[in-house]
Amino acid sequence: MTDTQTFRAGERTITVRKDLRVPMRDGVDLAVDAYHAPDDTPRPALIAMSAYGKELQALALTTPPQRRPSPMWDGCIEAGDIARVVGEGYVHVIGDMRGTGDSGGVMIGNYNFGGVSQGQDLYDLVEWVAAQPWCDGNVGMTGISYFGSMQVLAAAERPPHLKAIFVSGGHFDFYETTYHGGVMWFMPRAAREGRGGDSGIAHTDVRSRMREVYPPEELNRLVEERLRDPDVAAWPNLVHVLKYPENREFWFDIVMNPLDGDWYEERNPITLARNIDIPVYLQIDQGRGWTVDGHIELFDVLKGPKKLDIGSYPPMQSRPWIEEHDKMFRWYDHWLKGIDTGIMDEPAVSVFVEGSREVVTAAQWPPKEIAHRALHLRPRHRLSFEPEPMGAEYAAPDGFYQAPLTVTDTVQTLSWSTEPFEEPTELIGTGAAHLFAEIDQEDTNFILRLWDEAPGGRRQLVTTGYLKASHRELDEERTTEGDPYHPHTRAVPVEPGAIEEYVLRLYPFAATFLPGHRLVAELSNDEPLADAHNALLPPDAFHLPVGRPVTHKIYRDAAHPSRLVLPFTV
Would you kindly state where each structural domain of the chain is located, as residue ranges? Predict the structure, then answer.
């Protein structure tokens, strides 16, 4: 039975209808709570759905927002500012996806990709909400990250009463969410298991898609094959996951699928988004390049009214999530209430440029004309617009040896930097790093981070690039200058001792290097355990370290033009 309560939240009086049961077309019920003003006036509704538990989202009413690196920051409190939503004249509907929280049903695989389409469930939910007496028939959606991804899946199903969505910080290409350049990223583990600053999924009935699809004998063979990867075998948590997957079923599926392909592409939101024709506002902050990349990719395929808003560093917003609400209500007041807020008179693309701290607007991404220019790696750790004229016998390679983290706490890095810029220098777009390298093993990681270093040594991350050496193959038809494309559909071991060209894609960014500042490129095969940037991310937001000792030689001579190819505005 529905429990209706009225209470005070600051200066506002809020009524909540608890544990409403929403029937899905297959007979499963989803559980939602509906928060609204005390009177019975029908209002537009904003739906927030995830697997993290609606009761956790209710902490937005009582927990002051926390910013990283606060230990009270919980990455799963993402549904939005309930009191603000109600105060702006909307109903805030917060619920649990099937197999989680108070909802029924089973979730099979990440985002239920092995079971009932989550878009199908969201279609049924949108139409149910629109038919309630407390809703005026106009429905939007809200929430960051997981909640943002759900909005895209819902809109792709085209429920008639979903009039617009406002997506902040979503994750779209699921392979790119879990493997950056082929290198496993641990943060999805936190979101599913609940670790290092995340409560995780509110499991009730969730199952591994791999365990549903493969018979035990075949699955055991695949597990043993995965354990032959030295990186996986050297990380105790992964060995445990593979040997005992029952309580980590979604993380097990991710670990077991290190290559892109049908497993990830079946319900890729970027592909599904071609069905979306309602207005879509996309918002993302700089500092987590893969999410910036996904928002740009999504923006490019949308056909209806759309906005792309790339905000400022730092990369992690508050939890409970409260940012971007001013923009969100301008968007929804226009599309759900019919109020002319002027938002559609503004350019489609808005980009905050780090360094200059200017906002650049345009009709497209990138918002300015750019020309890719090369910065060459040179001896004495320099970056120069001029290529190296000498051969390898004179311009000997740089190098570093990285022992596995089982035997050391030290992460080795190589760095190269420009001379101080003499005038403001603006870069906006994607880039590439061409590294001619020799390693003495069959595989390694290449992790490149670009920094803006101010006089005195203070620095801020600009962008990153990742590539697992065995994933170095390029799709030549889709690769362009400054924008390489790796299919990641197979792993090709490296011949130890061979010099190979590795092309890393540098995630989209926007930065102006001010006079006196330097651009610093920092290369490693593992991530530093702590630095100024990583402190802003949850503790588990790092990548799987290399599990074998590797010696790296980086050639940067006339025959091996290692370089950065960067998007300078013109």
Answer: 3-346, 370-569
Give the bridge partners for 5, in sequence order.
16
- Provide the Cα torsion 428, 432, 433, 437; round to 10°: 170
Contact 191, 177 (CB under 8 A): no
DSSP code of 481? Answer: T
Q: How many CA atoms lie within 13 A of 347 on its CB side?
A: 15
Q: Which residues contact 84 (CB under 8 A, 6 or more apart)?
A: 322, 325
Q: Using an 8 Å Cβ cutoff, are 438 and 555 in contact? A: yes
Q: Which residue has the tokens 């029937």?
A: 23
Model confidence pLDDT, tens digit, residues 216-266: 999 999 999 999 999 999 999 999 999 999 888 999 999 999 999 988 988
The pairing of beta strand 398-402 with beta strand 370-378 = unpaired
What CA dihedral angle connects 479, 483, 487 and 491, to 10 degrees?
A: 110
- Residue 368 has which token pair? 């300015």
CA gap 513, 67 in Å, rounded: 26
Residue 503 has pLDDT above 90, yes or no: yes
pLDDT at 1 over 60: no
Q: Tell me the average pLDDT of the chain.
A: 95
Tell the CATH topology of 3-346: Rossmann fold (3.40.50)
Distance in angstroms between the alpha carbons of the first and the last residue of the chain: 63
* β-sheet with 306-311: strand ranges across: 165-168, 280-285, 306-311, 349-353, 358-362
Q: How far apart are CA 425 and CA 440, in angstroms?
A: 38
**Contact predicate 332/93, CB 8 Å:** no
Angle (CA) 471-292-249 rounded to 5° is 60
Residue 244 to residue 252: CA distance in whole angstroms = 9
Q: Which residues of 276-287 are buried (b: 16+ CB within 10 A; e: fewer)?
A: bebbbbbbbbbb
DSSP state of 162: B
Whether 3-346 and 370-569 share one fold: the answer is: no
Q: Answer whether 63's CB lies under 8 Å from 79's CB.
A: no
Q: What is the DSSP letter of 344?
A: G
Token pair for 187:
């943060």
* Distance (Å) of CA 550 to CA 403, 436, 496, 554: 7, 16, 10, 13
Q: Is the peptide bond before 216 cis (omega within 30 degrees of 0)?
A: no
Helix (H) or strand (E) holding 382: strand 382-384
Helices (H), 261-311: 262-265, 269-272, 289-301
Please say whether the beta carbons of 146 and 177 come within 8 A.
no
Tell which CATH classification among 1.10.10.10, 2.40.128.110, 3.90.1280.20, 2.60.120.260 matches the domain 370-569. 2.60.120.260
Query: Is 234 within 8 Å of 240 (Cβ atoms)?
Result: no
Instruction: List, as one string, the DSSP characters of 460-472.
Output: EEEEEEEEEGGG-
